[in-house]
Amino acid sequence: MRARGVSPLVVDDPRTDFRPTPWGPFVASIETPAMGVVVDALCGPDRARCKATCGERKEARSFAACAIDALYGDDSESWTLARELFDEHGTLPGTGAVHVIDAGYLGVMNTRAALPKGAYRHHLQWLVKGLRTIESVIAAVATTSSEPVLFRTRPHAVMFYKTDVPSYPSAYAMENVVGYNLEGPLHESEHKVMATLFHEIFHLNDAGHGDWSDRALSPLFSAILETCADDDACLEPYAPDDTKVPGGTYYPFDPRTAAVREYAAEIGERWFVEHRAIVERGEQPEQAFKCATSLNADAWSQVVGEFFGGVDLVAECPTPAPSSEES
What we know:
By secondary structure, this protein is of the alpha/beta class. It has 2 domains: 14-141 and 151-206, no CATH class; 212-307, no CATH class. The protein has helices spanning 28-31, 35-43, 47-54, 60-72, 76-89, 121-142, 190-208, 212-216, 218-228, 232-235, 260-281, 294-307; strands at 92-95, 99-102, 108-113, 157-162, 171-174, 177-181. The longest helix has 22 residues, at 121-142.
């Protein structure tokens, strides 16, 4: 989900954030976050002690390494994973000060700083594997495209937190950062964590493209809602994912969560799931999203063109996708 929070720290080079720039392999000298971002992500609520420990490190990458040592040094396995996240992707394994986020229909939520150590270490392991897989799939797709793949894959930081019961939201995306709830209900398996991570990274790209989904997909999204309202059976062929709001309907379409940006992020997530199977195993989807309705095909084509270099390795539909009147 997208959330609103503190003001962003602006970095001028678009290769360091999610403005439209071609995907490329990680280059530490370009993509290491600025010092202000490092301090925000790794010093958390105890900035004075953090700066006292690492203050002599004047270069952002060196300061980050020192701060990671201080945060994770008492858990060697978590420390190794935290360094892998930073060294391979430039993504900071962060913990923020207590703050408030607007979580949509869930209301205003207070988050508490937390770290993926001890009993929570597996979350960090799943995130490292997930980001590696995302990078691998995007790299493979980029080699097949004659157009640039304008999808960035490396958030400045993953900020770990907890909330009071119920543990929502599971994740959020804002200002080049992904937030990750260590007790979030969507984080029950490696597969679900990878899907959620891609979903949130898509939100960052969408925002970096000037909230593209609001401009491009709103007519299609409105047409779906006008046709189906909150009727499950009617919405099913249009839903890119099977996630539902508790007691409601599909997440992008439920009256409490309905937002075109969530619809776009789920289409992006579905693109990733289908293309991962093709890239890694040569498997085509049994039921391709784009083939369910003509509106799906239109939305899919626009998302693929904007973010994924026009690469669509999913086989052509055996028959034209049904129109909205037929579905």
